[in-house]
Amino acid sequence: MSEGRSPGAARTGPRILLSVEDDGWAALLSRPAEDMVREAVFAAAGGAGLAPDVETEVSVTLSDDEDVRALNAEWRGKDKPTNILSFPMMPLQPGDRPGPMLGDLILARQTLAREAADEGKAPDDHFRHLLVHGVLHLLGHDHETDRDAEAMEALEIGILAGLGIADPYADAPDAPERHSGRDPW
Fold first, then answer.
1. Is 137 annotated for ligand binding?
2. Is residue 88 part of a domain?
3. What is the CATH number of the domain that holds 25?
4. 37: Cβ–Cβ under 8 A, 6 or more apart, which residues?
5. Is 126 labelled a binding residue?
């Protein structure tokens, strides 16, 4: 999917390049991935304060555990799959204006499905949550310190509420640990 704008139309978010590299995504999600990716990326960008007319691009790859495991091992030294990997094109601080390419997001279908089932979440909601989380990382948000984690989590919760998704941390007794630097995101 290449997301652009028609002549004269106002941009509502970053241009999105979507690649689906695992056929199982269509069966996992209840709606077209393209629609949910657009919703989540635009909501995250807007919620983080990115002006709608900023010309930037984000690449989203819907992959599988095997490919994400290999990338996680190569780039993070962790030889296991994770739900999403975020690769910013350049390091940003929250509020910085991105360049023409914001970065890449790669999601692992099996890990996402397993987490959604284990946590009693709808796969669609977990998918959009991970996309929001990943876009926030691309825009410079992080959770390395407790203060940063609290700010990022509050931003996520607000963005997700706008998408009709309940607070994903409300019933998670380990939520503070999830954002203590040990987070797989």
1. yes
2. yes
3. 3.40.390.30
4. 1, 16, 18, 60, 131
5. no
